[in-house]
Structure prediction request, 868 residues.
Amino acid sequence: MMRFLLLFSRQGKLRLQKWFMAFSDRDKKKIIRDVTQMVLVRPPKSCNFLQWRDLKIVYRRYASLYFCCGLEQGDNELLTLELLHRYVELLDQYFGNVCELDIIFNFEKAYFILDEFIIGGEVQETSKASVAKSMEEADSLQETMEEYLNKPTY
Amino acid sequence: MPAPIRLRELIRTIRTARTQAEEREMIQKECAAIRSSFREEDNTYRCRNVAKLLYMHMLGYPAHFGQLECLKLIASQKFTDKRIGYLGAMLLLDERQDVHLLMTNCIKKLVPQLVRILKNLIMSGYSPEHDVSGISDPFLQVRILRLLRILGKGDDDSSEAMNDILAQVATNTETSKNVGNAILYETVLTIMDIKSESGLRVLAINILGRFLLNNDKNIRYVALTSLLKTVQTDHNAVQRHRSTIVDCLKDLDVSIKRRAMELSFALVNGNNIRGMMKELLYFLDSCDPDFKADCASGIFLAAEKYAPSKRWHIDTIMRVLTTAGSYVRDDSVPNLIQLITNSVEMHAYTVQRLYKALLDDISQQPLVQVASWCIGEYGDLLVSGQCEEEEPIQVSEDEVLDVLEGLLVSNLSAPVTRGYSLTAIMKLSTRFSSVNRIKKVVSIYGSSIDVELQQRAVEYNALFKKYDHMRPALLERMPIMEKTATNGPAEIVQTNGETDSTILDTKHLPSIIQPASQVNDLLDLLGGNDVVPVIQTAVPTKPASAGGELLDLLGDLSLTGGPTPTPAPSVTLSQPPFLLDGLASQPLFNDIAAGIPPMTAYNKNGIKIEFTFERANPNPNIAVITIHATNSTEADMTEFVFQAAVPKTFQLQLLSPSSNVVPALNQGSVTQVIRVLNPQKQQLRMRVKLTYTHKGSPVQDLAEVNNFPPQSWQ
Prediction:
């Protein structure tokens, strides 16, 4: 099971954080700090896996963003790399040539896509088309600005 | 019976209840209906009933009677049933329920289906939405493999059902992309965990071997991690890839280096120790400081276990000390000192090499500590140039003292190190002739600011002045120290030129318990005031003037090293008599006493007991007597126990016997070692008591032994 998924830039700014297990706020901040520091100092050609406390950290750099997750001991690291890649593909499919700016400005959509793909730290939907379709349906339910203004709240 | 109401209706009804009591009433009515429906074994509505039960469970009402029904639903072929069944299992069950077992078995039966699904995944054509680089739905594949792993763990039948598909996945999956490797990795993990056949295991290890040769770092890392897990069980198979693993030590990546180091230590054995050690020492030279401590400890452990010869062992230790000396752990210094003491014939060589190392570099504290200890002990060998192993160097007493004094004044030395060197200088006062110089040094430090040094110096000063007569005795050579750790004696024998370690295999002899009762019997029978029970010789505590570390070492050291004969059996391994019995070279005891003739202590009723003597070096007050008991009658003597008592002025220790059966017709003998401390050099007398069973009847006998040869106690 994945414990958490973090996206951060090369300068260490956090772009997305998803926690699959309950941590206190202090713990979360500490984890973010430690993991970010550890990953950012790694030389470019090095191995994508680290051992940290009792977790395996798997990270991959896509352009200016680091995608990083914390796994339990029993998980398959190589598959997690594939998982990260699949997530990026989903983002790419949705945004069309996704870049860091897309994720900064539409972070809620990034979260929605992640939630379609992974639940409780495990992959729940392996079909790219399915995820895309769910996102489309959900998006179609969202009101336009005019409808939004005219619709009564209750 | 009418059809049970629908779930939605039930929920609506319950929500109309206005009080708690009303709700409870409705629920109880419905529960009764559900229960009778379950009893009727109604297949059609079971699913609906369990769903209602789950709703009631969520409201807080007991629902345990539904557990078995969930099991039946899971076993059903209908998807709707299965869905509700699994949901019910998840909500209602935990590990404590027995139904849980039944359910696990049920799931196990699914294995053929799972296998079929996996097969379809692999064989089927291209499905664009699930595809990753040409492999269809790797996430699902890995999930199935993981489930198979859990189901097959410990279960022979399931494991057998999976063998084929695992082999198929392992051979057919394309490895050019990471995805394929991910699936292979999962397959390997599964094969390792289930009860697979050996052919499959070999296949798995070969896959890991192939991973090791891959260019991709991630894959190599993953391979090293998995090999580390499997090295315990499939040691030989992993050995084949040893050279690749050792190459990984030279990799630039930190994670890979660490894994490779751990794996290398796991792979070291008696055969490859020389080669591996070369690589590991090279690694130690070039690795990061974080690794050095672990690597050094690992090297020491490996060297201890598998050293092919003493000289090699000492060379290796020297190498580690000189390259990574400051990273070595603190407890290794006493261990090393003990090791050096035990390799008696290497003393001259060791001290010479250590001296040369000191001349080069005094910054590495562990090295300096060990070196100064050795120079203090064996300085006389150094000066006399006795080394056989290599070219002896010409060193004068003054040069040695210069070096040791240099340590004392140097800024690089830690306080502990200074203590070591002061003690070393002191010890040399009995071995060197330039006593005046030593006296001067010692008196200077009598006013040192460092309290520890000051105390030592003051006490040594006193040794020169008031207690000069005791000085030689106090400062003489250290006796062989026996490790209280479990592999003490075994280690000594192994490093003694590859002797057969099977002799000494930790055949933990029954800890010699001389129960107080038995001894008291002896006392009663003998009735004398002048006998004392068998006790362990306590080291006569040397005055505190001996250096702090020395005292610690002495504290550990028991001259006899055997277990205490008090009722609580001690943990320390007794010195097995096998060491003395039959081994040609006795590294522990210099046989100065070759001249003492053996004697027959007892010869009656067909049983003859002979005593042979050695003198324990360096303490000439300890006589080591080995008894040999032989039986010339036609029947074996079983449950043979030999006990001895000595007058009060002596101290005696009895070690474990080789066995307690004396075979008939002199076919073999029972040996046992007795150590007698005779500080007052009085004439040795002993009373012995024998008990044994002969031809079915127990026999007991007492005797007094007075005919000890004078050399044994003088």
Q: What stands out?
A: Strands of chain A lie at 2-9, 14-19, 49-52, 55-62, 65-71, 118-119, 122-123. Chain A has a mean pLDDT of 90. The longest strand of chain A covers residues 2-9. Helices of chain A lie at 25-40, 77-95, 100-105, 107-117, 128-141, 145-150.
